[in-house]
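TEACHING EXERCISE
Course module: macromolecular assemblies
Task: Read the component lines below, then compare them to the predicted structure of the full complex.
Student: A.B.
Group: 4
Components provided:
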Amino acid sequence: MIGGAGMANNLEDRWQQALEQVKTWARANSPWAIHFNSGSCNGCDIEILATLTPLYDVERLGIKLQGSPRHADVLLCTGPVTRQARDRLRRVYEQMPEPKFVIAVGSCAISGGAFQGCYNVIGHIDEVIPVDVYVPGCPPRPEAIIDGVAKLLQVLQGTEVTKPL
Amino acid sequence: MATQEKGRKFIVPIGPQHPALKEPGHFEFTVDGEIVTDATVRLGYVHRGIEKATESRSWVQNLYLLERICGICSHIHALAYCLGVEKLAGVTVPPRAQAVRVLVAELERIHSHLLWVGVAAHEAGFDTLFMYSWRDRETVMDLLEALTGNRVNYSANLLGGVKIDVTDEQSDAIWRGLDFLEDRTRHYLDITTSDSVFLRRTRGIGVTTPEQAKRLGLVGPTARASGIWHDLRVDAPYAGYADYPITMIVSDTGDLETRFVVRIKELFESYRVIRHILDTLPDGELVTRVPRRIKAGETISRVEAPRGELFYFIRSNGTDSPERIKVRTPTMCNMASVLALAVGHQLADMPMILVGVDPCFSCNDRTVVVDQGGARGGWTWEQLRQYGIDYYRRQP
Amino acid sequence: MNAESTLTIAAKLIEAWTVETRTPEANRLDVMVDGAHLLEAIRVLVDEGWGYLAAITGLDTSVDSGVMEVLYHFCEGAAVLTLRVSVPRDGASVSSICGIIPAASFYERELREMFGVRVEGMQGPKHLMLPDDWPEGLYPLRKDADLTMKEAEANGDSREG
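Instructor-supplied answer key:
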């Protein structure tokens, strides 16, 4: 055998590296998102839905809203977290495969918004699961939500995509 | 047979997490084959405790909070609250403000009904109609934004009036928008009553007779599609509806198709009323002064939200914050009908029946839990989490 | 028919069980009813087809008075008839009206959860709105409810991140 272990390792490393590049490329070109409402007023939710429809049409950018957390890369969270939705939110997050990213959409998701201090509200999203991108607004415009996703993709393309649980 | 099957019945849970739609709610449908034999609901995933929160906020702060009960019908919540507080305070709101309130309320109804047409079509698998109706809905969203500065949660109301005025330019834009929408709405009416594939999902499905509708306490367009003559804009005109009367749209067929037809015909009525308002908008002030402390008393404020009667009970003890605000939303009334109607229908019709009442949430994601001799095969969150971690560790 | 005469009809229908009436504002009539006769009064309204049940409101105005109120709002057109039942704060209970008006089930479940008013003869699981791990005996819409729950208590296992 010519070359020996060093060479083989090198080849394997390069192969791994190329594979990671392809994965990142694929991920950034077509992120699949899932939406979860943990106590929102529907305002942000209809705006998220609006991003799918012809005027904004995020699918042309490869972004697809997906039904199951097991197929999703990005979790779009709306609303403050209510006592009852907390475990559901955590469940949805845990079910997503690594690497996974969370975008908190709207003032309530960021800080609890108008619902701060309500007895059944635990708090905001990043008290329950880690958040990568915050999109402010009550509700944010669809453009702002798309911008949030785009920012995430930029980070994704530029960096190694591993993150502690 | 029911008892015999009991140990092995299938329960299909739907929700609370679901892919494309709005709020979480959890339904459990017990099925025998494809036929639903029992249904239960668990609400409260978005219960935040707003009624309690109003007691510790001032009258003005509550306006902001109550508008955020629902992002789809935010204006009507604020309107019901304002009308109630104004009644308690004994102030008269200028006619121009009342007309603008009706204008925004009807624009909101247009946005809400178009949204529903899209969502309901999506549930039936008719995504083309979903996309078209949401595209056209952007027209009314633009109008609302031009008028109030926000696409959702418009904050048009103040205690004692409105904070927005309608300029000539805006009026022209609304005229143009309505012309476009009216044309499109005719198209939707045509599609939803003639597309044979779509009709197989709607015609004769989820029929609610007038007797049932009355017994179940249905409200709004859902009730009017079952022959109930009930619309607060007509029965008890509030804000400017006495000056800008509307015609009630009622049909007594009671199936899903009728619900489409009634809501779409209501759109035409909204277009007509809005044009009427723009033509004859009274001049004058937009707001009148409301004291910081509201006189002690109790009032009931009822308005017709896009989904039906919205009921506010407001009690003041003379301080600067309310003693009690009770809100009864239309979905609360209509939800019971879903459970009653579900029995005897195909499981595949469930999303349509759910959406048929235009609930403030719809669920469409499903997983199946098999009942194995009594104990539900459910996993605790810890078990599930551990399983997930182990599963991914095992992956090469 | 205008709201005034509609309300007059309603007042006549339930005259036998009326303790006291009030007209707080136009198109409204408040009727105090003894809890023991609530079902009979509602039965008559339903049998005669007067209006529909619009809502059930729980009302806790002060801790000192020792009583709470349960308000049954019936609407017919612009007219609103409210049956008011007074219940003691300790051991509050009313009869379920679901047998007469099935649509009342959600309202009654909400009443029980929020005010701790026992509804005799009501079907359905314990919680409708509140989480399953909600503290026993804590009724959020009562005036003396202590809602400053400790986060640790409320959160259980959950903060491991």
